[in-house]
């Protein structure tokens, strides 16, 4: 019988010595927030039904939007235990300070509370993405500088996928590990230990409806993935197209089966749509830990230092062989422009 390894036990058993305290407990906190968000998200379709049957609460509160609920859940669980000095949420304009009555800790949390929330209405998986940095300067901790750090300096990153099951996947720099929520036990149990991107990859993910918005080199790269363009340097492996329109779900599938997710820049959106701080950065840390690579198309996303909380970046993320091929084709444009 396989052993029951809860996320709490695995985190504690696998943390480096220096992180037995706050970082471990912070990951517990995020796991608890995930359970609460999972419960609410899995009942989203019932809200109207329940509402019509008189389930509206005594204050007559209208149903919060789920991404606001997710944002507030993470804040309320993480604002008081004294592990964080500051937070930054994709849902909030500026950084979120720790209330004065609580101690400020050593870590800074960045998160997208519910990415792809528009998919809830059509019952498509959604996700929470998070990254954890260490403070920059102890006496000054709690500033924007504590979150505006390159993803290479993350001490931990992960996501929760609210899908056919709820999974929490994270890394503290010792590999990537996945846990599946057992709703009866209310526990995340180890289900995917030491995840590595498989070779050969199986999928490529991009919104093909935007083909005419991309620069020619991106168009050629997608044609290469489809076996319709050969630059003489070898053909792509046989790949299927899969694009759910929910980043965490597309990323998770490609992590387990091998592949590449792309959201390139476009003529009127040169930086694309995906946010560096809350989405691309944490996923770049994770994919690197799983043997993969994340690029803007010309440079590693791990080395980008954010200057704005909500800045966006083009993203090519997945198997290193596929991402480096994209760079080789896009670099040709860079050379032409230089
Ligand atoms: P498009 C969801 O809104 C999201 O931020 C990601 O989860 C997803 O990958 C992307 O946008 C989809 O964007 O433009 O293809 O609909």
Could you please describe the fold and organization of this structure?
The protein has two domains: 7-192, 2-Layer Sandwich (Fructose-1,6-Bisphosphatase, Chain A, domain 1), CATH 3.30.540.10; 203-337, 3-Layer(aba) Sandwich (D-Maltodextrin-Binding Protein, domain 2). The protein is an alpha+beta fold and 338 residues long. Helix 1 (7-14) packs antiparallel against helix 2 (22-42) and helix 5 packs antiparallel against helix 8. The relative contact order is 0.13. The longest helix is centred in the N-terminal third of the chain and has 21 residues, at 22-42. It is built from eight helices and 13 strands. The N and C termini lie far apart (60 Å). The strands form two sheets. Strands 2-1-3-4-5-6-7-8 form an eight-stranded mixed β-sheet, sandwiched between helices. It has a five-stranded mixed β-sheet with strand order 10-9-11-13-12, with helices on both faces. The radius of gyration is 20 Å and the shape is globular.
Mean pLDDT: 90
Q: Ligands in the structure?
A: 6-O-phosphono-alpha-D-fructofuranose
- For the largest beta sheet, what order do the strands appear in spatially? 2-1-3-4-5-6-7-8
CATH architectural arrangement of the largest domain: 2-Layer Sandwich
Low-confidence segments: 49-63
**Could you name the CATH topology of the largest domain?**
Fructose-1,6-Bisphosphatase, Chain A, domain 1
- How many domains make up the 3D coordinates? 2
Could you estimate the helical fraction of the residues in percent? Answer: 25-40%
Would you tell me the structural class of the helices and strands?
A: alpha+beta
- Strand percentage, roughly? 15-25%
Number of helices: 8
Query: What profile does the largest beta sheet have?
Result: 8 strands, mixed
CATH superfamily of the largest domain: Fructose-1,6-Bisphosphatase, subunit A, domain 1
First and last CA, distance: 60 Å
Shape: globular
Radius of gyration: 20 Å
The total count of strands amounts to 13
Reading off the top of the CATH hierarchy, the class of the largest domain is best stated as Alpha Beta
Q: What is the H/E string?
A: HHHHEEEEEEEEEHEHEHEEH
